[in-house]
Structure formats: structure tokens, C-alpha cells
Amino acid sequence: MDVLTEISLYLQRGNEEKVSAFTRQAIEKKCAPKDILNNGLIHGMNIIGEKYKIHEIFLPDVLLAAKAMYAGMDILKPLFIKGKIPTMGKVVIGSVQGDLHDIGKNLVGIMLRGAGFEIIDLGNNVAPEKFVETARQENATVIGMSALLTTTMPVMKKVVDLLKEKSLNNSIRTIVGGASVSEEFAREIDADAYGYDSIKAVECIKKLVHQR
Amino acid sequence: MQKLLRRLKSGEILIADGAMGTMLMERGLNPGEPPESFNLTHPEVLEEIARLYLEAGADIIQTNTFGASPVKLSLYSMEGKIEQINRVAIRAVKKVIGEQAYVSASCGPCGRLLKPYGDVEQEDVYNSFVEQIRIINDEGVDIICIETMTDLTEAIIALKAAKTAAPSIPVIVTMTFDPTPKGFYTIMGTDIATAAIKLEQAGADIIGSNCGNGIENMIMIAEEFKQKSRLPIIIQSNAGMPEMKGTRAIYPETPRFMAERAKRLVSLGVSIIGGCCGTTPEHIWAIKRAVEVMRCK
Fold first, then answer.
1. Under a CB-based contact definition with an 8 Å cutoff, are residues A178 and A197 in contact?
2. CB atoms within 10 A of CB B247
């Protein structure tokens, strides 16, 4: 079997050690780092995303696959220019102020990294100003906000309003998600997109990045 | 008061209370504040909520201790207050209900993912539950309710902690399932059959489901639990999935809607029926009436 296929398969099984070993082997065999990334790691993660979408696998499988992906990426990083993984775009993500429920948000981060995006994860309890400031400083294209608790959802509106206030709403787009967030709510607060689940969120963010 | 398990075994149906979190929000709990902070600042609100549910006819009243384990409290730097938080919550309920209902101590997930998926050691989670449940046992309750679990490993760890720290108190374990095209699963991938079998093996006294996506799904969940286990089954459903109206969350299922469907739960043989997020004393009152009408037939 081809070494990149091995990487993809072991990533899907969540085998961190094997993914690391085969990534090193691929480098020794002079595979281009970009190919190892796209046809090995990201390829495997895409399949994980597809399987998760159709409920063939569950969160634990995704989390283990992600760990394996990160292990591979860490080995590849120094081989790229400036020691950074080439990116589809930068996305700032976080759970909005007051929210400690971060599994959904973490999953979006995993899927986005798996799709080749660079992620700045601000964690939980992120204030509106922090989202906007970080996105501006880092020159990010998209802000992704997650909320599970309905009481924390008004904070999302604040971020959208802040971007408008600073006339940043054309350069920085917004996407919202979380258990109690709906398409209707996203429209109501004038967010640019609504991510029904982590897979849908990645699709929407790809579109938002292309629109810019 | 008659022993709970004996009553359930004889076929009696008991009514549990409804939501705590959404009731606290209506009484001033701010976004981002842990519900347990009210135990330190507003114990009178805990008494008020217990009274409302008692008056609505609940036979089982829960304490505001869902997140009162050290690992969870440490997310808010409140782990130093664990003793006071648990004791105040239990005393508030006991003071109101006396011998009129059972006190059930709520124990929710630790709020972090266990290794190998997350970063917290299983042993630390076990010790965390033991620490909370030791205080609960010392204060004295009728039931321990381990709820809203999605990771079966964590549910079993909490159950074992309860059986160690409070060996004589009956334990309820409920998990939260989502509908998928292949049936009901927790987000961590546990199906109902596995949950039912493993929880029974691990020594749970009462099992079932709470939270979730509305009472119609719960009817299907209850049916599967009944097929897989001979333990008494408990169902505590959300009042549907919340919808945002402006900045307020509205739970769509009315007391009447839920009460109608609670009858179906009774005919399936569910032993304890209560509510979760979005349910109110009105929901519990309506469910109680519906169940009583069935009993008379």
C-alpha cells in the first residue's frame, strides 16, 4: 500500500503512533509535504467527517482521528515555508461569553483543521470585543461562534453589531452554531451563515471564504 | 415514608419535578453564572422552586447540585465551596418538603472529556464524584440522580462512586440520546441497549433518559429501555427544543401537550415521569393529573 494511503487509513482508525511513523516515512521517501498533508492527513479526516455526518461513527472516533491528524501535522510543520501549514484561510472560533459547553465548538475546529483551515480557538467565555479584536489583528476571514445555552445567544448579536460598527463586516464574515441556534436566529441577528452541524459549518465557511 | 423502590416495584407511578436551570434564569441567574452559585447567594430561591414543584404534585424533588462536583466547580474556580453548595441545596429542599416527597440529589457530568478522548483522568473524575456524594450522603437524601450523561464510561464511574460513598441510597442514572437514522445514540455513540445493559450490570437501581429533543422522542426511547431492562424506568423530557423569540428562549411543548404524551409513557410501563429543561410546575401539574386519571380507569 502507498504510504499516503497508510497515513489516511491509520488516521481514520485514530492511531496516533502509526500516523506519526508513516508521516516520517513519507518524508524520508521524499513525498512533497503538501501531498502528505492533502492526500494523507486531510484525505483521512475528510472520510472521518463524511462517516460522522451519516452517523457511521461518533464523537470519540472523531476526537481520536483528530489527535492522529495533529500528530502528523506537527511533524510536517517545519517542512513548510515559515514553519506553517499552508492554509485555506484563517478562522477565529470560540464559545460566546458565558458558555462552557465547548464540545460542538471543538468539533468545528477539528473539522476545519481537517479541511485545511488555520484555526484560532479563543476557548470558552469569549467576550464580543475579543472575537472582533483577534479577527482584526490576525487578519482572519471568518468568526465562528458557538452557543448551547439560549441565554448566551444575544452575545452573538453583539459581535455582528460590533463588526458593522467598525465597518469590518465585509472583510470578516460571521457564522453561528450550537444546539439552540437556528437558521432563523442567524438571519435575525444578521450573521452571514448558520452551521447546523460541524460538517455543515465547514461547507459554509468554505463558501464564505470564496465570497470574499 | 415508604421505601421508594418498594413502591415502584408494586407498580406505583411517581412524578418527578421539572426544570431547575430555566427556573433559575427566570429568577435572575445571569448568563455564564453556574446555577450552583445561587446556593451561596439565594438559598430562598431554591426553597421557592422546591415549593412550587411540591405544590404541583411532584413526589420527587431534585436538589440544585447538578454541577456541584469538584471537577465541574473548578471550571468556575468554585471548588473550595463544594461542601456549602451541596449542603445548602439539600437543606433547602428538605426544609420545604419535609416527609411529603423524596429528596433526589442531582449529579451531572464533570464537564470535561475523559481520556483518551479528552484530557481528564478517569480516576480524577471518580474521586470528584466520590467527594460530592460523600457530602450528599452525610447530609442525607432519598435518591441520587446521575443525569444528562452522554459518555457511558463517565456514567458508570459516577454510579460506582455513588455506590461506594452512599451504599444505602438508591441511584438513578439517566442518559441523553439524540435521534439518528440508525436509532437513538448519545453524542458519544452509546445506544439505548448498551446503556440499559451496562448500567444494570454496574448496579443502577433506576435507569432512563433525560433532557433530549422532546417528549415524542422520549416515548420511543422509553419503549426501547423497557425492552432491554427490567429495572424501573424514569423519563424526564425537555419541553421540546428551544426556539429564540428575540432574546428569550421559548420551549414549544405546552403542559397539555406533554401531559397527553405522558399517558403513553405510563402505558409503556415507565415508573417515574418528570421534566427537564423548559418544563415548569404547570407542566408537572398537568402530567400528574393525566397520570392520576389513567390510574383511576
1. no
2. 11
> In terms of residue numbers, what domain contains A105?
90-211
ipTM: 0.83
Domain architecture of chain B: domains with CATH: 12-292 (3.20.20.330)
Pick the residue from chain B with its C-alpha nearest to A157.
Answer: B247
pLDDT in tens, B226-244: 999 999 999 999 999 877 6
Looking at residue B247, its pLDDT comes to 62
In angstroms, what separates the C-alpha of B264 from chain A's closest C-alpha?
Answer: 27
Summarised one tens digit per residue, pLDDT across range B105-152 is: 999 999 888 999 888 999 999 999 999 999 999 999 999 999 999 999
Confidence of residue B52 (pLDDT cuts 50, 70, 90): very high
Largest distance between two CA atoms of chain A: 55
Domain stop point among A83, A104, A138: A83
- Cα separation of B96 and B105, whole Å? 15
Residues near B138 by beta carbon (within 8 Å), at least 6 away in sequence? none
pLDDT(B27) > 90: yes
**Total domains in the fold of chain A:** 2
Beta-carbon separation of A151 and B249 below 8 A: yes
Chain A environment of B240 (Cβ under 8 Å): none
Last residue of a domain, one of A27, A52, A83: A83
User: Could you tell me if B224 and B182 are in contact, meaning their C-beta atoms sit under 8 angstroms apart?
Assistant: no
